[in-house]
Amino acid sequence: MEENSMKKSATLIREIEINTNKLALLQRDHARIGQEISDLAASNKAKIIELIGTTVVNMDLSQVPIHLLVSRVSKLGDGLFQEDPASEDDTTVFVKFGRNASSANRQVLVSAGLHWHGRDGGWVGRVTEAQLASLRKAFGDRVSASKGDDAGLDLEGQPSAAPDVVSADVAAVLPLAEDDDGQAGGATREIQLASGSVRPFAGFPPRRPPGT
Fold it and tell me: What is the radius of gyration, based on Cα positions, of the chain?
């Protein structure tokens, strides 16, 4: 039993020595990596300061009043770690167009940052003036835009379709897909017409007495 205990102790001592050597190596690497990080950070800081100094010299900012220069630089520093707010020039756009658009039309819509809004059967998003002009050129009067106070409205708040019209989501699963004009095919129109002619079930007629 003592022999087993001695073997176990020897094994533990050997493992401790191995771990100690590994730890020493890691600590040396840690110190080296930490020094390299500090050196690289200091080098980058010096290069950034040099770059900014060169830029200032080339721009001849010596003609700018010092108080204005300091004020602008301070504002720049205050906004470094803040997320950029949505541009005030952005416009909220709704394009009344079918989901099953051709690849070319879909590319125009997606590249402008619009996404499909199934409830209202169109594409919504916020775009720049240049993107709005491109959308109007491609889709004409199907494009509706709002700016200023209206631009802050939730994009989910676009007016929904009338209750008696089959929604774009329903039309999308019909056998006949929508064409590029965003209008459902004949199957959709048949559903609309049929919905007005269905009458509630009034029950079976009364049974006649036996022998009559």
Answer: 36
